[in-house]
Every structure is written in structure tokens, then in C-alpha cells.
């Protein structure tokens, strides 16, 4: 079903792209209007919608030929490709070519939807790393927005740096859970019910929802909970910063809890304010997080932190629920409590994090994951089986690209040393006649023009 939809959409876009007329050329206004009208009539839609459709179709066919081929072959879902197109609209053709080449090489069959979006967002963040953008701290704002329908509803919008907003949301969620527990206790004992704004809790003998409690707490006490103790967060928030970014040698983006890209400068400021840093090692070529050995049932604190970096969202395929604050550590091969030596070890290789609902579904044997030696996991869904998918392990997205960039930079440096040696010994003319070591950045070009290599570099290029 998905493959047929992808193939059909690619065929439509290929046809629509043929109606492209340069939107910036004032001499082609009549021709452009004629083309838009023809497409609008054929698709039974409006010319305003056609203008966007033709633009995206032209971009897809012209600037994203490799990923468009994946769409036409049924390998890429339509929704994924449309998000890719939206992500590259404001980039240059050269940058689109880079993203097209990289995404087309991804193993799309083993990437769940949430991970595709995470990797696409991080990839897109490369091109914003050195742009002139306002600092997140300068965007702090609180504003009241009316619904626009004169219905008595308004919204309080709080804007600020991602870590601060996430921290506020986490404290508000923890406070609401603590108050909800206290409401439940009050109903059982007959004590006064806290935060019962409209008396509904006492009247209906049921606790308020977490969303309603979060509103009540903000409205009444600005996150003070009237003496009710709010538990400390079970986990810290991880900001994963590449070591070169931390050292100020690169501006590769960091990631907030392994998912949300953060500007390099902001990541360095966050790191500078911490007394303790935690080092996470990754494979230098694949980016896969390296396992930490353990031999006990309950994971150590270090193991849990490792899992939270590797599985910032539920490991179940297609699930995007965060496991940063609420989630469970699950044994892929069930732990044998009676005979621990028989299997199900408590080790990084046999653990992942899941949200409560999917964990219960796995416990009920409705979903069955099997971890393989290469770190991939095959998921069988349903009994009898209704679907099966093998997912590659989540990896650090920056390690392979940085390793490749360092390797290429070293090869180019060695080439420059060879050229300097030829010039010092007067053998450069012989080198040009007979050939010599090729510049890895300009293989196939005239090596005598190596002094122009700097012109080929783009300061905002990601290290692909």
C-alpha cells in the first residue's frame, strides 16, 4: 500500500514538474499563469495551490534526483519525502545536492518514522550552524494570544531556549503527578481535596486529569504546590555535544536528549555551566553507541543513562513517545529470575527503553523483539504475526561524518606535503608530465591548480 502510494505520487510530481516556469522572471508571467491554469484544471484544484505544487515538484525532480528515485521506487513514504522537500526549500542547490546524496544512501527500510525525522532535522541543522540567527536566550517571551473566535478562550505562550522550556514542562508534569496522587489519597481518606478548582473532584469522586492539574497549578500558584512534596526528577537531561564542538574546533550541532538539535554556541554554554561531564563513546565509523558491560538484574545508574542516550524515544517501531522522564528499561530477551545464567542478561546489548503501554504489550507477548549481533532488532507484531521489521541500531549521527572529514583533511594535508616536496626539489615539471599523487579533494583534475582548492570549500558545508 505504501509503495504504491509513493510510486503514484512520484509519477504525479514528474508530470507536474514539466509545467515549471521560472517564478522570478517577469517576462514569463503569462506563460506561468497559463501553465498554472492547465495544472489546476487537470487536478481540479486552485491556482494558488498549484503554484506551491509545481514549485515543489520542480525542486524534487531537479535538485533531489536520488531521493526522488527512492520515492518512485516505492522505498520512501510520501510523507517522508514531502518533509524532506520542506526542509531544503530555503537551501542553495549545492546544499540540496549534498542532502540528496546523503539521504538517498540511508537504509530507509530499517529506519522508523521518528528516527527519519530526527536525522533529517539534525542534517538540516548543519546548514544553520553558522548562520546569523538570534540567540535562543534573546527569544524569551511570554504572550497572551486570543483564539480569534470570540469564544472566551485565550492562550498563554511561553517562548525560550529549548532546555529551559523542557525543564519547565518537566517540573510542571512532576508537580501535576504529585498533586494527582494527593487528590487520590484525599478521596480515599475524606480529607480536603487540593487544587479542586470547580469542585468536580469531590463531586465526581475522581481525580483531575494531568493536563487540567497542570493548568490549575500554573493558574493558582505558579508551580508551587501548596506544601505537597514534588519528587526530584528521576533522570537528568542529556545534551549530547560532539567533542570537537565542545573544544570550539567545530560548530556541529549538539542534540537535546539525543533528538532535538541545539546550536553549537548554546551547547558550549550549557556544558560550561556543569560541574560534571559524562563521556559517551561511539564507534568511530558507524556512530553506534558502545555497550557498557553489567551482570546484575537492575541496571546501574550509568547503564540507564546510556540507554536514555541511545533510546531517547520508545524503542517500539513507529513510536515517538519520549522516554527521558517517563519510561521503562526492558530486557529484550526476558530475564530468567529463577536461573539467571540461562539467558536474559542485564546488559546494554539486551536492554532498551520503552514507554509503559508498549512495555505492557511486549510483556503480553503481542510484540516480540529479537536483538541481533550487529545491534539491529527484528520486531514481530501480533499473534499471529501481522507485520515484521528489522531496525538498525540508533547511532550518534555526527561521529561518522566527523571521522570522514578528519580522514579527508589528513589525506589532503599529506598531498600538500608531497606537492611542496616536488617544488623544493625542482621536480614539479616532471610531476606535471608524468603524474603524481592525486589530490583527494580534486581527483581527476589538474593537480597544478591545487592552490585554488580553498575556493571549492563552503564554510557552512557539513563534513560529509
Automatic annotation (TrEMBL):
Superkingdom field: Bacteria
Pfam families the record matches: DUF222
All residue ranges annotated as the DUF222 domain in the record: 16-311
Bias (Basic and acidic residues): 445-464
Annotated spans, Disordered: 432-464
InterPro entries according to UniProt: DUF222
Listed name of the protein: DUF222 domain-containing protein
Amino acid at each position: 500500500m505504501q509503495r504504491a502510494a509513493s510510486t503514484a505520487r512520484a509519477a504525479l510530481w514528474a508530470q507536474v514538474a514539466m509545467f515549471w516556469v521560472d517564478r522570478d522572471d517577469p517576462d514569463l508571467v503569462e506563460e506561468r499563469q497559463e501553465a498554472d491554469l492547465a495544472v489546476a484544471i487537470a487536478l481540479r484544484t486552485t491556482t494558488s495551490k498549484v503554484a506551491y505544487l509545481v514549485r515543489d515538484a520542480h525542486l524534487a525532480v531537479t535538485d533531489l534526483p536520488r531521493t526522488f528515485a527512492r520515492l518512485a521506487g516505492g522505498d520512501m513514504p510520501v510523507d517522508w519525502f514531502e518533509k524532506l522537500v520542506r526542509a531544503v526549500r530555503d537551501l542553495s542547490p549545492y546544499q540540496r545536492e549534498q542532502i540528496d546524496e546523503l539521504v538517498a544512501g540511508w537504509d530507509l527500510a530499517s529506519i522508523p518514522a521518528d528516527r527519519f525525522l530526527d536525522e533529517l532535522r539534525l542534517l538540516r541543522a548543519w546548514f544553520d550552524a553558522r548562520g546569523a540567527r538570534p540567540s535562543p536566550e534573546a527569544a524569551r517571551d511570554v504572550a497572551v494570544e486570543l483564539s480569534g473566535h470570540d469564544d472566551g478562550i485565550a492562550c498563554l505562550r511561553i517562548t525560550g531556549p529549548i532546555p529551559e522550556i523542557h525543564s519547565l514542562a518537566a517540573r510542571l508534569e512532576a508537580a501535576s503527578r504529585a498533586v494527582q496522587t494527593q487528590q487520590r489519597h484525599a478521596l480515599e481518606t475524606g480529607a480536603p481535596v487540593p487544587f479542586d478548582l470547580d469542585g468536580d473532584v469531590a463531586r465526581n469522586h475522581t481525580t483531575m486529569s494531568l493536563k487540567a492539574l497542570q493548568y490549575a497549578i500554573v493558574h493558582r500558584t505558579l508551580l508551587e504546590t501548596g506544601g505537597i512534596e514534588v519528587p526530584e526528577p528521576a533522570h537528568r537531561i542529556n545534551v549530547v555535544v560532539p567533542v570537537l564542538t565542545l573544544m570550539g574546533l567545530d560548530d556541529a550541532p549538539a542534540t537535546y536528549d539525543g533528538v532535538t538539535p541545539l546550536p553549537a554556541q548554546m551547547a558550549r554554554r550549557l556544558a560550561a555551566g556543569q560541574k560534571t561531564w559524562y563521556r559517551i563513546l561511539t564507534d568511530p565509523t558507524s556512530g553506534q553507541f558502545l555497550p557498557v558491560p553489567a551482570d546484575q538484574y537492575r541496571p546501574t545508574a550509568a547503564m540507564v543513562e546510556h540507554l536514555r542516550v541511545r533510546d531517547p524515544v520508545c524503542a517500539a517501531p513507529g513510536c515517538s513517545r519520549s522516554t527521558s522522564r517517563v519510561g521503562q528499561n526492558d530486557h529484550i530477551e526476558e530475564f530468567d529470575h529463577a536461573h539467571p545464567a540461562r539467558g536474559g542478561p542485564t546488559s546494554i546489548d539486551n536492554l532498551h527503553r520503552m514507554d509503559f503501554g508498549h512495555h505492557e504489550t511486549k510483556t503480553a507477548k503481542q510484540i516480540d523483539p529479537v536483538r541481533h549481533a550487529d545491534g539491529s532488532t527484528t520486531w514481530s507484531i501480533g499473534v499471529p504475526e501481522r507485520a515484521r521489521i528489522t531496525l538498525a541500531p540508533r547511532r550518534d549521527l555526527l561521529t561518522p561524518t566527523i571521522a570522514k572529514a578528519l580522514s579527508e583533511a589528513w589525506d589532503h594535508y599529506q598531498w600538500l606535503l608531497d606537492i611542496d616536496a616536488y617544488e623544493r626539489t625542482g621536480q614539479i615539471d616532471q610531476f606535471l608530465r608524468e603524474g603524481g599523487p592525486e589530490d583527494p579533494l580534486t581527483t581527476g583534475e589538474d593537480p597544478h591548480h591545487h592552490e585554488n582548492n580553498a575556493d571549492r570549500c563552503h564554510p557552512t558545508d557539513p563534513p560529509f
